[in-house]
Structure formats: structure tokens, C-alpha cells
């Protein structure tokens, strides 16, 4: 063997040099590939930075013309009138009303469905019903808007004829049904993650499935369920098209769902559909509104994070 | 034996306790059954609404579905209005979205799964992705408006729409690709490394082919989400009344360039539906129902395709 290795000493040297060159080349190629992949992964960071930068930069144009105090406390939102008022409270009341109606439906129904699917339903039932519920969240929201305006509103008007054609109630109801899968899916996953031993202990004490679900499983899964609720809230606050179509785009400082109202999101759509030139104060209001929306969403994300940490149970 | 040590009064209490216990158990069982019924009721509310939505859309819309609905442009007359510019616009925007989101998403997921070290920077990227999944879609529209339309000067075009939607579905693509890569057993990687493969060779020759079903599923689910998004596209300024198609490359007088269609004004299906729903004329509502039917068909069709593909391609893999 040693004879063969030393039979051509020059060739083995060049062979080693070739190996070394190949290795260096391969290492260089790998480093380039890794940097390209890193760049792709950083696109998400760039997106967040981009959102923050654009919202702040464009809002500054707005806040140069409108004092922050007026923005936060004025009770009228009339950016297109000659005597313009910019009170974000008006839009926030719309968002609040619609979200409340939606969550009053989504949270109870979603939780009950989640408890039923995880504790009561058999395996086959769950396998059929879970994808069906996911369908609810897969339908484009503009179709929900169409449904709210042209089916739900006439339906409610048959019971309550004074309901205006555009109102927050039907939009909120449809939005609530749309959010149910978000709440129920995550809650159910959280409940299924609770170890079987806790349930078995409870059953051994003679508790029924209902008692086990409500007194043992639900508190144990609380952090996951709280995340599900926060996700539902964020989804309700950020929803645009259902409200743009069915709730009317009339800014209205009210908490009564039976009236039309504009939310932060539907206002942005309204301005984007119009003819205001870029750079005018009326136009820059959408960025100020978007900034408010982002801050509210961020608060809820932080709240969700804190709740998860606070209630986390390690099994 | 037992009973002889108990006084007559003691035996009575035991029987009373047993009766009280039985009543309690019966009450609990009743609550259990009532809650079960309540659960079924809640489920049926959700599913009935879905069914009502479909039936309403089908009943109003199907009579309107005929070939010239698909080949006519929008018109002021409801009977002649069609969705040609809308579905062509949707498909073109989806092509741009897929061309941007798929490479960037897969590359990012591969980095995070295979290359990233466990440090604060990786945590930052992961937190960002989770965060972005929860941002309302209209904020992406505002980002695109400020950045793509005005700062980069790409205008209110198909390119901007595609880029916006690509950013929107990027978290979905990255998350599902990571799950697909994570599901591949470690011995595949180890075997490849043992043969002297470099990291990228392992990824490109072994992991991506095995992960393809999961990745494709994620991409299709992302695209089916993107096709129904209205708010960001309205915000960047897609027009609602378009009576022309983007220029086909190399045709027309003067001949359109290969990429001129990217910069053309456009409309998409959800915006056409929005426009028709907002009109007071009930004939346009029928058009909106028909277009909604087509859109739901496209969305659910893509979801079904994703599920079928995942099943089909997964069958051939034997770990």
C-alpha cells in the first residue's frame, strides 16, 4: 500500500492541492448560499421595519398639520369638510362596537364548540367537523360582506323593521361567525394538549365529562385558550371588508350597533377608493389611522404574550 | 353483621344519603347531556350559517353563470357585465405573488431550520414572523402604498399587488415549509452528511424533494388566502371599473414589451365583487353573487387541491 502511495509523489502533492482548492471553493459557495438564505429569512424583519417606518413617516405629515391632542380627543371625524375635525375616538368607537358584537358571538360559541370537540365528540365526528369549521375561515371576507348586507340585514329587518340598511349589528354577527374557527381551533388544540392523566383522575373521582371539561381541562389549558381569545380579538379589530360593505362608511360616534358606523379599517378603504391626492392632510389621515391600528394590535399581542407566560402550565 | 351495630335511625340516614347521592348523580348526568346538546347547537349555528351563505350565493348567482359572464368586461349594464378583467387580473397577480413568495419563503424556512444558530438574532426573526402573521391585512396595503407605489415608484400595478400579497403570505409559507422540513427524520440528513455532502447538497438533493408535499400544501394554502384578499389591493389603488386587459407581451400596436403587463392597471375578483355589491341595483347583486360563487369555487378548489396533493405525494414516501 505504501508503495502505491509513494509511487507518484508529485501527483499526490498536486492531488492534495486540488483537494484543498476544491474544499476552499466549496466552502466559499456554501458561505454565499448561506448569506442568500439569511437575506431571505430577514425579509420578515425588513417587512416589520418597513411597516413601522412608512406608518411613522407618513403620519408625521399628518401630525404636522393636526395636533396630537386634537387627534386623540376630538369627537368628530370630518376630514373632508372645510372645517375639518380629526377625532380618532369616532373611528375607534366603530371598531369597538363591531368587535364587541363579533366577540360576544365568537368567544362563547367558539369555547363551547372547542369543549364539545375535545371532550365530548368521538374521533370520527371530530375528523369531519374540524375541517368543516376551517372552511368557515377559508371563505374570502368580501363574500361575508355580501352575505351580511344582502342576507342577514333583510333577515333582521323582518324582525326589527327600523334597522337601517347599513348597520354594525349584521356586520358584527357575520364577523363573529367568521372568527369562531380561530377561537375554537386554537382552544381545542390547547385542551387536547392537557395530559390524559388529569382527566382520568377527575373521572376516577366520579365527575362527568362536563365537570371534567369545565373544572379540570379548561383551567389547565387556560394559557392556550387565552391566546386563542387574543387572536380572535386581533382578527376582529383588523377586519376590513365585512364592515366596509355592510356597516356603511359613515363616521359615527356611537356604541349602538343598530346604527351605521365607520371603523378605522373601513375608513382607510373609503379614502383609498376616493380621489384625494397623495400628500394632502385628508389622505395622510389613513396613515395616522393605520398607525393607531398597529399600536392597538401591538398592545393585544403583548397582552397575549404576557397572559401566556403568566398562565403557562408545564406538564 | 353491620346492620346489628347500627341503630334504626342510623340505617335510615344511610338510605337517605344513598338516595341523595343518586339524585345528585342523575342531575350531573342531565347537565352533561344538556351541555352536549348545547355543543351540538353551537356547532349547528356555525355550520348552518356556512350552508346559508353557500345556498344564498348559489341560488342568486348560478342562473347568471354562462360563458359570456366569463368573457365580458365590466359594464354599466348589469346584464352585459362580466368578470373577464377580474379573473385575468387575479391570475396574473397570483403568478407574481407565487414567483416572489415561493423562493423567498422556502429560502427563509431552510435557513431557519437548517442553518440558523440558536441566538438572539434567530429569535428576533422567529418573533417577527409570528408577529407578521397577526398584522391586519390593510396595514400591508398601507406599507405597499407608502413603499412600493410612492417610494419605489412601481405605481398602482400588478407588480405592486403581487409583492404586497407575497409579503402577506410569507409567514404562512415559511411556517408550513419549516413544519415540512422538521417532519423529515434525522437519519436522511445523517446519511447524506456521511457520504460527504455539503449542507446545501443535503438540503437541495434530499430535504427539499422529501419536503415537497408539505411545501406545496403551504404554498397553495397561502395562494388561496391571497386570492381572496381585498383590503390591501384596494389600498394600493386597484381600480374597480376596468374595461381592458393588461397588454399581452409582444402584441398590439406598438408591440408591448415582455413585462409591460406588470405595470398595467388592473382589477381582481374580490374588488369586482365589492364594486357590484356596493351598487343599489339588484341586478348587480346577482352579478356579485355569481362572481362570489366563482371566487369561492377557486378558493375551495385550491384548498382541495392542496389536500389531495399532500395525500398523493405523501403516499410515495417510505421512511
Structural overview:
The complex is a heterodimer of chains A (315) and B (319). Chain A has helices spanning 2-5, 9-65, 68-73, 88-120, 123-138, 141-159, 168-192, 196-204, 209-220, 222-238, 241-246, 264-273, 281-311; strands spanning 77-78, 85-86. Chain A has 315 residues and is mainly α. Chain A starts with a helix and ends with a helix. Chain B is an all-alpha fold and 319 residues long. Chain B has helices at 2-5, 8-61, 67-71, 84-115, 120-133, 137-151, 158-182, 186-194, 199-227, 231-236, 269-277, 282-315. In chain B, helix 2 (8-61) packs across helix 12 (282-315), helix 4 packs across helix 11 (269-277) and helix 7 packs across helix 9. Chains A and B meet through helix 2, helix 4, helix 5, helix 6 and helix 7 of A and helix 2, helix 4, helix 5, helix 6 and helix 7 of B.
Helix proportion range of chain A: over 70%
Q: In angstroms, what is the radius of gyration of chain A?
A: 28 Å
> Biggest interface between protein chains, with counts per chain?
A-B, 82 and 86 residues
Strand order of the biggest β-sheet of chain A: 1-2
Give the topology string of chain A: H per helix, E per strand.
HHHEEHHHHHHHHHH
